[in-house]
Amino acid sequence: MSSDAFDVYVDERLVGTLVEQAGGCVFTYLPDVPADCFVSLLMPVRAESYVWKTLHPFFQQNLPEGYRKDRIRDRLGPHADVSDIGLLALTGANGVGRVRVVPRGQSPYVVRNRADMAALLASTDSRENLLRLLEEGIGEGISGVMPKTLLRPLDRATAITDEFVLKTGFDDLPWIAVNEYLCLEVARYAGLDVPEAILSEDGQVLALRRFDRTEEGGRLAVEDYCALMPLDPVNKYKGTLEDLAKLGGAYIGGQRRKEDARRLYTLHLLNFALRNADAHLKNFAVIYTNAADVRLAPVYDVVTVTAYARFQHDLPALPLAGKRVWASGALLGTYGGARLNLSKAEMNESVELVTSAVQAVAPQVSAYADRFPGFREIAKRMLDAWAQGIEDIRPNAAPGRHAPKALREDVGLSASRGRRVKEKNPYLNHDGPFNHKSR
Question: Which of 243, 269, 276, 399 stands the most exposed, by the fewest C-beta atoms within 10 Å?
Fold first, then answer.
């Protein structure tokens, strides 16, 4: 006997029903649904139902995590249903992409918070204003969580408007909005597709233009690689870089396959160079309007994780050739040739693009350190990480083979006076929140 039932829409069309049953969840297309109105690349239109042991991974990909999930529980009380089905009922009408899920019989149209984003970004307390906006829009559906420590959650509060995604952090990850803004600037300089990014005047909130919307206001489908595996979000660290290449080869076709193989390779280099230790399966996605135009989504969620002291020893989130090491230039070269069919010249060009991009953005890091004095120490650690990173993506990279160039000294962001004494990191935990084992 079903306990929950939902209507599923693709754009404006009702295409199917989703029902929770004792043995799991069942999705069934309605009769006469056009073939291009499929909800997922893994779920083409057919008469037979799709049965999953829990909620289908596609329907899980936008569910709230971390801070947002906690706020829902706080707002609705201790007996709030924060199961996957319960969260879907609250947020399914507002997910990223073209699919909307609502309790049976309810309207898929919702009234969004019309807060003045420009005023929020210009305010001197943008973080607090965003948290208030988040409280008001508790039903918005967007995934994303920063890992937790034993001290307190390290979640990033995220809210969505019709055009932008707004993100902020907490004291556990100081200046993470500036950190991500600068990392995205590196991606932009490297020639990757990056959404428009706006940093608040006080440096505490980052606004990113939604890439699931067309210029005409239409909706693009979005599927992250975790859902395509298909895996539940809790298993987002269980993939490999080889899995990403395989999925791209399976779903990205035609002329886009070669172009996106180069983009994916450059993105891997970027994550290694910037020490983005949290590049898990959910931080890669495809977008499309139909099965014939699937392509790699724009870059998102790129942060120099190792700039934070307690995570300075973290390793790449996903293994490559069974290894999780930063000095992976040679491994990446083998991967690019064997898995992505790239030539040596193409891969060398990507290395140079990322290296040049890091060097081009480094002065901006120094400028933001001058603008926000509290960001200065994070900025130094970011540049130190980047300096080592661009050495580690070179084809002949090996641990300790090359000393990194003094990147921060080159841009006038030198170390403090006096001898620097290495301190023991009391937070170091190889099974900690940014480690894949904790997932």
Answer: 399
Q: Rounded to a whole number, what is the distance in angstroms from the first to the last CA of the chain?
A: 33
Structure tokens belonging to residue 19: 């029902």
The pTM of this model reads 0.86
Residue with token string 């690689």: 225
408 falls within a domain: yes
Tell me the two tokens of residue 332: 């990446």
Residue 361 placed within a domain: yes
Alpha-carbon span 57 to 42, nearest angstrom: 10
CA count, 13 A, side-chain hemisphere, 19: 13
| C-alpha closest to that of 62 among 207, 241, 221, 195 | 221
The answer to whether residue 238 is domain-embedded is: yes
Task: Return the H-helix or E-strand segment holding 273.
Answer: helix 254-273
Task: Give the tens place of pLDDT for each residue, 392-438.
Answer: 999 987 666 666 778 988 998 875 433 343 444 433 444 444 444 44
Same domain, 90 and 233: no
Instruction: State the total domains in the chain.
Output: 2
Let me know whether 242 and 386 are in one domain. Answer: yes
For residue 102, the cross-strand partners are: 7
The string of DSSP codes covering 161-193 is -SSEEEEE--TTSTTHHHHHHHHHHHHHHTT--
Closest CA relative to residue 386, chosen from 308, 270, 258: 270
> For 123, left (φ over 0), alpha (ψ -120 to 50), or beta?
beta
CATH number, domain containing residue 350 = 1.10.1070
The boundaries of the domain holding residue 396 are: 223-419+431-438
Structure token pair of residue 382: 């970011």
Final residue before a domain boundary, out of 87, 103, 119: 103
Helices (DSSP H) in 34-142: which residue ranges? 57-60, 66-76, 84-91, 117-122, 126-136
Kindly state whether residue 130 falls inside one of the protein's structural domains.
Answer: no
Q: Output b/e per residue, 209-226; b: 16+ Cβ within 10 A.
A: ebbbbeeeeebbbbbbbb
Model confidence over 110-146: pLDDT tens digits? 655 556 778 888 888 888 888 776 665 544 444 443 3
159's enclosing H/E stretch is strand 157-160
- Rounded to a whole number of angstroms, the CA Rg of the chain reads 22
Task: Express each pLDDT in 173-196 by its tens digit.
Answer: 899 999 999 999 999 999 999 999
Q: What is the DSSP string of 94-119?
A: G-SSSEEEEETTS-S--PPP---HHH
